[in-house]
Amino acid sequence: MKPILRKLLIALAVVVVVVGGFAFWVLRGDPARHTPDELSGKHPVLVEPKSEWIPSVSLARTIGWGANEAPKAAAGLTVSRFAEGLQHPRTMLTLSNGDVLVAETGAPPNNAPPGVTGFFMRLFMGRVGAGEASPNRIVLLRDADGDGKAESRFVLREQDLASPSGMAWADGKLYVANHDAILAFDFVPGATALTGKPVKLMDLPGSGNHWMRNLTLSPDGKLLYVAVGSASNIGERGMDAEKGRAAIWEYDLATRRARQYANGMRNPNGMAWNPSTGELWAVVNERDQLGPDLVPDYLTNVPVGAQYGWPWVYWKDKLDERVETYMPEYLTEYTRKPEYGLGAHVAPLGLLFATGGQRLGEQFANGAFIARHGSWNRKPLAGYDVVFVRFDANGNPQGLPVPLLTGFLTGKGDTHGRPTWLAWDKGGALLVSDDTAGIIWRVIAPGAAPSAAPKPVVADHMPPSKELIDPTKPMTMELGQITEHRMP
User: Fold this and answer.
1) Torsion angle of the four alpha carbons 174, 176, 182, 183, in this order, in degrees rounded to the nearest 10
2) In whole angstroms, what separates CA 187 from the centre of its chain?
3) In Å, how far from its chain's centre is CA 147?
């Protein structure tokens, strides 16, 4: 055999071995050892990290829903189609007159990173039904007769939109978050077209691994909050690429000034106000490639100035040793622990609180509803559902996630669709966007009365001290006051 032919055969054999090994790993991967419930709740299991150069890939191909098919609702609830035939519907906003705005959207062009990583990302996204060009459109759905089905549909706006996601409305202004900017439009509910030129309020870091930019207004309508996800998994593109990312920003509508409200959150998405405490809460997608059981995505309150550790730290004090960038000094001393785990790789997106007036029954009258979009790198698959997290009278999450809408997975490795965003319709039903199936689902408890609003938490503050306290004397604290006990 000629030397050159021998070398070619050896090279071919090496390629076959490498490709075969890669295919074997992708197909077999590293199966999970814990259930999603074990990785959820206030004290989720945190396993030892197993760094993966190649993630365990498990892609659920979207096959859609048959004419008579639907997800499975929890006992006492029914599910129907509020709207269908939409093109990748993601976020929703219910206006004061009951009209529902839907952003038909997808990733901006050339969003994947360069090289091999980008090649496989594009391949994976195409497989799960997210590879098409973004429609860049907001549509308005109207259920004028209140029968639970939108009989009218209008294209509200297509111009000036670039991968739009977040939407909010107050005082005659509709705010829309493109992947790279926040725009403000003049808009009065009832109109079926969004005309006029928008005003740019704020530039945002564009594109990146996480391109959705979600919005919520403060209860008084004066402050606008925008969630901006990271451009990478753990800062592997350098921290200069992460400036302004992995954070929630606050924009003052009166002064037009912005400040970073909280950071260290790899990919914050849905945001909502806890009706009991008045706190801002958010769901966050945590990092990948530490194994199928790590790291749990989470639901948490977000106080101003909060730091959740990304990319260096997760769950308050767990160091990610893969991160090459120098960690800020004393970071673990002020990193916050998330309030509640939602399971590893479940990809929570939509978040909605029960605020009163909903018709889902008493069992769903106090807590948070979360759309878990579903995993792409875990075996078995996790997420692909809507769950309810019960809260206690003090505004704190309790127990494990309660399944509210399931049946998206076929059980054969495919999925009918992927639940994405949540909103209330004017009749108190829960709306769920299914982006890969192009459907808005409506969930309600037939005959249920509108629920009462959760009671606000009212707590007395400790009174200010009026004299210096001797630290050498033992003290006990009672409700609302300090009682000093003197040594005999």
Assistant:
1) -50
2) 27
3) 30
Report the C-alpha gap between 366 and 210 in whole angstroms: 31
Which is it for the CA torsion 204, 198, 215, 306, positive or negative?
positive
Q: How far apart are CA 259 and CA 189, in angstroms?
A: 30
Q: Are strands 414-415 and 61-62 parallel, antiparallel or unpaired?
A: parallel
DSSP-derived secondary structure for 231-297: SSSSSTT-GGGGTT-SEEEEEETTTTEEEEEEE--SEEEEEEE-TTT--EEEEEE---SS-TT--EE
Which is nearest to 85 in space by CA: 104, 107, 110, 113? 104
- The gap between the terminal CA atoms of the chain, to the nearest Å, is 101
Locate tokens 């996800």: which residue? 229
CA proximity to 36, closest of 436, 302, 409, 454 = 409
In the chain, where are the structural domains located? 1-30, 63-461
Q: Average per-residue pLDDT in the chain? A: 90
CA-to-CA dists, residue 419 to 33, 52, 400, 416, 472, angstroms: 25, 28, 19, 10, 58
Chain segment 345-400, per-residue pLDDT in tens: 999 999 999 999 999 999 999 999 999 999 999 999 999 999 999 999 999 999 99
Q: Tens of pLDDT along 330-347?
A: 999 999 999 999 999 999
The fold for domain 63-461 equals Neuraminidase (2.120.10)
